[in-house]
């Protein structure tokens, strides 16, 4: 793939590692029982993870029916189901660390890893809640680790109101929890700024999509 991150010849390969979550991740209570946890720089040495994610891991273009036309979804997708080996061991470690930290509150493990590749500023995801599964009716969590060019995640209450903005940079963690998928919506807006590729890795429990 041509999107691969180009390290300069002076780059020293730093090994990707996870930094602690406990006592560092910051919770933002939203309205109606929704919350967002945010930890910028959770992963350090993220370049090698980004390099793997921008390689040939089976990215595919999804198509959606829009009225009379079938159009390409403006991002590439790769879905890792339960039991599928993730493309970089750091991601397996991230899921384990999320289970350790959030398990007592969530009551179940994170099992799937949905990935989105935003090739440039024209790629985006429109306002939505992750409501295809149990997020429609119950409280749950969706944990997102971001790699590559920073893009903001916007959130707004479904009942209307101003939106909140969480910048998601290389190695940052954001977790949407409580009623967030039902009572709030989120999006990654398009931007005219010259941004490079970004990969979002979303960990979800069984039956949440
Ligand atoms: O790119 C992101 O971080 C968000 C993606 C998202 O909301 C989704 O795939 O449901
Ligand atoms: Fe989503």
Neighbour order of strands in the largest sheet: 2-3-12-9-14-7-6-5
H/E series: EEEEHEEHEEEEEEHEE
End-to-end CA span: 28 Å
What is bound: which ligands? 2-oxoglutaric acid, fe (ii) ion
Protein traits:
mainly beta; single chain; four-stranded antiparallel beta sheet; 209 residues; binds 2-oxoglutaric acid; 14% helix; globular; eight-stranded antiparallel beta sheet; binds fe (ii) ion; Jelly Rolls; 14 strands; 40% strand
What does this structure look like?
This is Alkylated DNA repair dioxygenase AlkB. One of its GO terms (biological process) is DNA alkylation repair. Keywords: Dioxygenase, Oxidoreductase. It comes from Blastococcus aggregatus. The mean pLDDT is 94. With 209 residues, the protein is mostly beta strands. It has an eight-stranded antiparallel β-sheet with strand order 2-3-12-9-14-7-6-5. A four-stranded antiparallel β-sheet has the order 8-13-10-11. A two-stranded antiparallel ribbon has the order 1-4. The protein has one domain: Alpha-ketoglutarate-dependent dioxygenase AlkB-like (Jelly Rolls, Sandwich), CATH 2.60.120.590. It is globular. The protein starts with 16 loop residues before the first strand and ends with a strand. It is 14% helix and 40% strand. The structure holds 2-oxoglutaric acid and fe (ii) ion (FE2). The site of fe (ii) ion has 3 residues, from loops. The site of 2-oxoglutaric acid has 10 residues, from strand 7, strand 13 and strand 14.
